Amino acid sequence: MTGQAHTGRPSKLLRNLSSKIASIPMMLTAVVIFLGGTVWTVIYSFTNSKLLPRAKFVGFDQYERLWSAPRWIVSIENLAIYGIFTLIFSLVVGFLLAALMDQKIRFENTFRTIFLYPFALSFIVTGLVWQWILNPEFGVQSVVRSLGWTSFTFDPLYNSDIVIYGVLIAGLWQGTGLVMCLLLAGLRGIDEDIWKAARVDGIPMWKTYLFIVIPMMRPVFITTLVIIASGIVKVYDLVVAQTSGGPGISSEVPAKYVYDYMFQAQNLGQGFAASTMMLLTVAIIIIPWAYLEFGGRKRG
Amino acid sequence: MAETVSIKPGPALAAATKAGIEPRGAKPRRTLSGRNIMLYGTLAVAALYYLLPLYVMVVTSLKGMPEIRLGNIFSPPLEVTFEPWAKAWATACTGLNCDGLSRGFWNSVRITVPSTLISILVASVNGYALANWKFKGADLFFTILIVGAFIPYQVMIYPIVIVLRELGIYGTLTGLIIVHTIFGMPILTLLFRNYFSSLPEELFKAARIDGAGFWQIYFRIMLPMSLPIFVVAMILQITGIWNDFLFGVVFTRPEYYPMTVQLNNIVNSVQGVKEYNVNMAATLLTGAVPLIVYFVSGRLFVRGIAAGAVKG
Amino acid sequence: MQKSVSIKDLSLSFGAVNVLENLNLDIGEGEFLVLLGSSGCGKSTLLNCIAGLLEPTGGQIFIKNKNVTWEEPKDRGIGMVFQSYALYPQMTVEKNLSFGLQVAKMPKAEIDKRVARAAEILQIGPLLKRKPSELSGGQRQRVAIGRALVRDVDVFLFDEPLSNLDAKLRSELRVEIKRLHQSLKNTMVYVTHDQIEALTLADRIAIMKSGVIQQLADPNTIYNAPKNMFVAGFIGSPSMNFLRGEIVEKGGKPIFVANGVDFALDGYAAGEPLQAGRKVVLGVRPEHVKVNEDGPGADHHQATVDIEEPMGADNLLWLKHAGHTMSVRVAGARRFKPGTAVKLSFDMGLASLFDAGTEERI
């Protein structure tokens, strides 16, 4: 970089200097925010910080309190229900739609545009529109009743037993298009000769999908799974907009718990402990995946 | 829709993503077989389900409140009124003010434009450095960055609050722009790194033989070749930042609240009578920007989210 | 000869893998040197080190007697032509040619003069305003050569410049590169895996394998007196026939015996005495075997035609002889039916003998 006629080896630090300067934001982000911030939060989850972080360590107190708080338990249950059903439905529906789209159909672009547009919308918009559709006084329930079925009841947002399913409907509406798109890309990545071979061998189409194509798409499915899963753990805005956690605490989720304790209840320690639990959840999802994706490859 | 933009994709990118976008094979025959009826029937029903909320939003926002109370949400408006739109934009009340969404809209513009530009600038230069000017240790930082993309934001927001407070920019637009740049970095850096790596390495070598340095190669060789990927990154960032709620609510003061936060405060405000038509107009207005980006950009949007979702 | 490029003890390793190890090479002023080898042999790595695109782990590189080991590529007085042409797609041909000069902040008049001269030499004048995407493969490669030409460099580096072209264009451009070298008289270092390019273009060829130069010599020597079995087998198509056997003393003279068949070694210039009992390998090129012609030893070399491959100008025969399969090239007009018995004779003056253990030429 210096341009002088030197015969010796240039200094190590100065070599590639521009590249290093250009990477400073990345280095700071990686080390200070991602690594440092995470470690800091985990450490302070063992303190009794209230309004401001204080380094007064209290062991696992915050975690004990967390796991004995009904609201946290409800949050975890909701996350589990929301997560399991989101995974199942978005993968099944997403794959079915992708398989239908892969039949060399007309208007493929139109259909894709329709299935995917909700993904462009924010969770706030999604939550609010479904809040309106599921409104028992004016929405689906009242429309069906006005058709003559007067005993019809469908009021998920006002029934604490099923409120999380109301959130689920909205979440699926927003996210399934993405899953469809990813899986469609995966389907298109399958060598067309595979299809020809299966047809020549007289294998019915559904069997080809089930026993040949889906196993071949394993990497795409795993990646899609990880994307859906890490999205599930972060679910927050949707609940805030659609139900505000209600009725009561029946649609609370962990991310909302963290926010409320950190910024409203002024109980930072609880917020840190809850967010550390979220981190743990993600780690449980990510580590096996990373192991399969990268660890196995090195061995193989 | 995709035909409205005429940006030629780079050959490498096109090849990488074409498979996922282009329909293949011969044009389907126009037959009314049972299979086709099933196929198109299912797709049509699914399409109706996806379109329904958009339809409901539109018709609700065009009705007056009396009509909403009487009719059902699916019926088209008997009497079209744009008053809810006007009110949603200019005079709807949150708990704090009665400026409508306009305040949130302009805040969102002031947040989204610089955040998008800065995050893309930082990440593209960084991705270029990682792809072409790799230095010792670069991979370690990059790995941390990518792993960090999976960490829930909730784990990192408080430390960021502290850092921003120390810098004296907590609650300001500058602070929020930095936050968006930080959290956009993993995916954008990955996107640009992969793109620049896919360009022929010999091009970079040729430029070095020609005597061009780090910045000359970036601005004069790489940048002009990479317009499609910049468009993809812009789509990704504009929709992502516009739709953000959490960072807006955590890192800004109420006077800087972005449109999503303002919208939520209007709709879920506990004061007064619920005006569903105004709410739906406000919801549509907030969704309009990303929807327009989506409909105009078409295939590039698909490519953007595919790039964002599946590492290239 | 004046030295143009000089490489001293050059080493390069990626992690634990040594790509180049203590490599020494002197290239003369105005010489056309070809680095030949199969992929992964280190030839491109060596070229990239000379260009300054790769940093060596050890050793030094001199160009025009100046130590350039740590210089930037632009300060080394080199120009480089790449396999994929590496033309800047968004720039016109003219801009492609002038980019390096602009970066060097050369006055515009001088840039124009040089671009015009290069365009004239390469006959690409009419293409100057076009973009690379509007050019054919051969035109693109001409522009790529022009980019090195305008910079008025001492040394041209070619990295497999013709590998992306089809066979016809390749032979055309090969001639042009040769003509260019004859008129410019620059030093040229040319990397290829194509032995025809190497043999036709080079003043000297350096054959590489696993980061080591196996033989450095003019094409004729490389072809007729390969230093070891690798070089012998690498050059020539189809490959040289190798017969494994040993030296036996007969009638006071050493002869070669393989599978009970004797080969007189009259006319072979061995570099060392041939001791009886030594295990050796006899190498004979397909075109150095005579079929049904009178000559020494023809009487007792019986063979049968197994397969015939007519190739127009030549006719390639695969024969069964002395327990080996042997390829023989005869004139295209001479046809043989499979199963025909033939008599062979060998011109030992053109054959090679290798030690069976070291595989080095004897």
UniProtKB/TrEMBL annotation, chain A:
Annotated ABC transmembrane type-1 domain residues: 76-291
Membrane topology: Multi-pass membrane protein
Transmembrane segments: 21-43, 79-101, 113-133, 162-187, 208-233, 272-292
Keywords of this entry: Cell membrane, Membrane, Transmembrane, Transmembrane helix, Transport
Pfam families on file: BPD_transp_1
Location relative to the cell: Cell membrane
PROSITE patterns, per the entry: ABC_TM1
UniProt family annotation: Belongs to the binding-protein-dependent transport system permease family.
Name by which UniProt lists this protein: Sugar ABC transporter permease
UniProt organism field: Shinella curvata
From TrEMBL, chain C:
Boundaries of every ABC transporter domain copy: 5-235
Keyword Nucleotide-binding annotated: yes
SMART domains linked to this entry: AAA
Keywords: ATP-binding, Nucleotide-binding, Transport
Localization terms from the record: Cell inner membrane
Membrane topology: Peripheral membrane protein
Principal localisation: membrane
Listed GO MF terms: ATP binding
Family statement: Belongs to the ABC transporter superfamily.
Protein name: ABC transporter ATP-binding protein
